[in-house]
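YM 10:42: 2-keto-4-pentenoate hydratase sequence, as discussed on the call
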Amino acid sequence: MNKIFLDDVEIIPSKVVCIGRNYMDHIAELNNEIPEDMVFFIKPNSAISNRLNFPKNQNSCHYEAEISFLIEDDKITGVGFGLDLTLREVQSKLKEKGLPWERAKAFDGAAVFSKFVSFSGDVSKLGIELYINNELKQKGDYSLMINKPNEIIAEAKTFLSFEDGDILMSGTPKGVGAFKKGDIFIGKILYENKVLIEETFKVN
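YM 10:58: structure's back
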């Protein structure tokens, strides 16, 4: 089973619960419709990684940076930087046919995480930044989320259970795009506009 680290302690999540279309500008950049209800999908434990590997046998893959939360007792107890890797062309074909997204979202290594740190602060003061090759690509914060993290947890619990150690990915701001081997990613989680977490990934 794949693991993440919370304050240097190993945690094995059973799954990653993701919400799609949670930032207005991101919805617009992909020409998607604003959903009437929250859009959920799941990444399995097998998708979790602390390394950023370009997917095998693929010509293109997109990054999506997300504020990610560790859940224990149905509450947020930790925060980390996450990358929801997406095979966009595959996803588009699946959506056109009304089919599930697993091939595009749940492949091995599709959920890349920094270390997590314990968190009991005000989630409304959290933000995220992603730099690729020293260029700012994505920047967002709590205020831009359509659905707030605790609302997402409450809605998810209407149809699934969180196991202790599960992860919630809270959606991505605008600026998603393709990447390639050799790129250098720097992911930051901000709290009150100060860096809480900073992690560097090189695409292998």
